[in-house]
Every structure is written in structure tokens, then in C-alpha cells.
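Retro notes, structure queue

What went well: the backlog is down to a handful. What didn't: a couple of records were mislabeled last round, so from now on we paste the full input next to the output in the thread. Example, using TetR/AcrR family transcriptional regulator from Lentzea rhizosphaerae:
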Amino acid sequence: MIEHTGSGDPARTLALLWRTQERTSRKGKPDLSVDRIVQAGIALADADGLKALSMRRVAESLGVGTMSLYTYVPGKGELIDVMVDTVQAATGRTPVDGWREHLAYVARENLALYRRHPWLLQVAPSRTVLGPQVAAKYDFELRGLEGVGLSDVEMDSVLNLVLGHVQNSARGLTAAAVTEKETGLTDQQWWDAAAPFLMTVFDPARYPVAARVGGAVGEAHQSAFSPEHSFEFGLEMILDGVDRLIESRRS
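Corresponding output:
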């Protein structure tokens, strides 16, 4: 199930994100607020994914009627945008010396964010919905590239390259965790179970390079694929490329 950012009403979404029209609970009503509704939505999505998210289920978790939520949040589209913005606050903002170290720090903080909230991978960033937390995170991440010789557009492009790699790596890590949970088998256990059959049909002489490389990978990772290794290796390759770009600008 894929949801899209920016699917709600733009004016209402931005008013919610920046809290320009915060409503207070009416007398005699439960202590509702945008923040409470958003936190309830995040808790549901963390537990069961976005497929579990609906205004009705959020209301049930808060012990109120569904219609009472609409006083604070117009609908599911706007709610998801505020949820996405809210969780961005959890990424670290520790200053790190050196652009390379900064980007590595940013990458690992974003990977940790996806691990805490896997449902973010079910949200397609169709539009950039600029809330206060997204703006603060973007500003911090760009600051580490300030003054290294890149143009403003290149700074943004480098950051997006790193974040795209993080998102792809997070998908691999999440898929591996879900598969292990649903099958009850680790990747290595699955390959161990498949090995007797593969030995009868796979001819190393016919696929010599695949046999050699696959064997080396299996020995190194105890698996046919390591999402963790893929993340670290890919990050280093990207940073090496950025280094060459920066050096070309300096020369």
C-alpha cells in the first residue's frame, strides 16, 4: 500500500503543519489536539503499517468518535503529511567536522529513522510538503555542504543522492526483516534448506563466475545478500564520487 504526500488540501495541510489554526478542545469534550491525533496515527502506523491507518482507527485509539477528529484534522491525507513531518524531528542534529563525515552521519541518521518508522517507505514523496521539521532537517543536512565549492543546486543534488541510497537500503533491510518474521527462517537458514536441491541442478562449470562470486559472498556475509554491507559499500562509493566532484570544482 502506497500513500502520497501532498494528497490533502494544500492550505489546510500547511496550516496544520505550521499550527497557524490550532484548535482547542470544546468544553466537556476529551482533551483532543492535533498533536495527540498525530501521535496516535504514528503509533498505529509503527505497529501495523499504513494499511492500518484510518481516521476511524485513530479515533478508536483515542476513545472518541470519528467525527470529532475532523475538527482538528481534515482527513487522512493531511494527517499523513503531518505524521511524516513530525517524525523528522527524531533525526540527530549534532554538528560533525568535514563534509564527508557529515554526509555519513546524515545517512545513518536517516537509516535509523526508517528503522524506527518503516511505514515511511510506504509514503511516496509525490510533493515536498514543507513543514517545520522537514525544513529544520533539510537546513541541517545542507549546512554540512556549505562552503565546499558546490553550487546550491549541486548541494541539493548531492543530498538527494545520499538520501535516495538510504531509502533504497532501508527497503532492503525492511524486506529482509519482514521475510524472516513471516517465514520464521533467516536468509542463511533458507539457503541451507535449498542447498540439497540446488546441488543437483546448478552446474558450477556452466556458471563459473557466478559460482565463484556467489560462494565468496556467501562466505563473507553468511547470506546471499547483506543489506548492511550494501548500505555501507554504496555510501562509500557515493562519497568517493562527491569527493571527485568537489575536487574538480576546486581545480
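Agreed that this is the format going forward. Reviewer comment attached to the example: The radius of gyration is 23 Å.
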